[in-house]
Amino acid sequence: MGNRTRRSRAATEQKQYAVEAEWSEADLALLEGLRKAEALLPDDAPRALISVRLSVLTEDTTSPVRQELDLRLLARERGLRVVGVASDLNVSATKVPPWKRKELGDWLNNRVPEFDVLLFWKLDRFVRRLSDLSTMIDWCLKYGKNLVSKHDSIDLTTTAGKIMVTIIGGIAEIEATNTSTRVASLWDYTKTQSEWLVGKPAYGYKTARDENDKVILVHDEDAYKALHWCRGAAMRTTPASARRMVRILIRSGLCGPGLTPSTLLRRLRNPALMGYRVEEDKSGDKRRSKIVLDSKGKPIRVAPPVFTEDEFYSLQKVLDGQGKHQPARRLGGATKFLGVLVCHDCTTNMTVQKTRTKGRDYAYLRCGKCKGGGHGAPNPVEVYGQLVEDVLKVLGNEPVMTREYRQGAEARKEQKRLEDSVSYYMSGLEPEGRFMKTRFTRERAERTLDELIGQLESIDPESTKDRWEAVHDGKTFRARWEEGGMEAMSADLLRVGVKCEIKRTKVKGVRAPHVHMKLMIPKDVRDRLVIKEDDFAEAF
């Protein structure tokens, strides 16, 4: 292999890959040659989008550079103009379908008119589930796109090609299922062993090698110190709160700045701290772990304990006594217009907090960063009502527009037919042309030519392009929101990016602050209000 140098795609005037990839001088020279060949293509050459994907970039995988160059060579062979490269690296095709990937998903959901053919290196580089493949075939047929693979006989323009792509997709799904089964089997086997085979150790432990070069679990010294300090702080006569523990641990350097009270409590409640093998407990509504038992019903020890059983269970008793038993969340949430109502001072979301005093319930809108939630905004229902009134005044009469896809293939075909006909009659009206032999044929040809030119001029140039069009469905947003209620209005406001600032001013002699609301609407709100159909909403 020739000398390779790390070159970003900025050097080639392309968008950089999501992870670092190597471009050799030979690769860049080939890329430049392919671009020069593309420049010679006719203006109406089919447009190709290249899709590059890898689950993990290793020495054994086909590099994204090689995938792209191979697909550019294929595009040259087929006379396709490459209009973009969607690179999604470190992305699993089994877990993430094409329309959910960061780059390819943007093309599929928002940039449909910009390409005609989707190129990929191999089918398993594109999808690994038959259901995903079926969804993509339906999508391509709806929008008039084609799927082309470098190493598979795939062409949606023929019946045989559709059958072949389904068969290949089935094989890819079987392979993915087999891989998933092997991984699940390995985990099931691992749970029954006292040796540490795979997986990430629980907090408090790290992996090491014993004298026989086997992987074992040992105490992580910093984590061990942190856990024992936390237990001591919790067991005091006046126990420290989890929030205070977090501040001290971060300040001491025993834990990183990303530690939160909920994470710390989850670590302190993990029975793995007794040295036992654990697994996720899915029976409750909280994120907890439970001890794995062997065939005799006994715990499987995999490491030296951080806490003895007495130490661990006495700690759990204290934590249970300190825990707050919050009521179940109300369906739909306690706060209406969450994400729309924001604090003027700290710009965080306003949420409803309820208190009960002397048998009476009180509700306040509070923010997340102001001290004590700011002055609070009492009567959230009144705030909601005012917001609804303000929004209806500004946006209520806007028409509900839906984005629909229009293909220009038929208009282009008609335009080409008329252009050919005009050329035919123009050549026939030349001095020695076929229509110049008699006065009758000349006048007849001239009238026909005028009619053809008129028809050609009547074709809207935009109608010959693949494009999105906003179509009015006959309703206004006032009618839409009257039917759907606050939930429908809240969803639309979030989608459009409308915010409402809540400013609370203390009034002397009055307990409740004065609430001032400021509606903030983006300048391009009409474009944002257009409803975009989700082609993949029912794919799962």
UniProtKB/TrEMBL annotation:
Residues 202-325 form the Recombinase domain. Keywords: DNA recombination, DNA-binding. Pfam families: Resolvase, Zn_ribbon_recom. The keyword DNA-binding applies. GO terms for molecular function: DNA binding; DNA strand exchange activity. The keyword Secreted does not apply. This is DNA invertase Pin-like site-specific DNA recombinase.
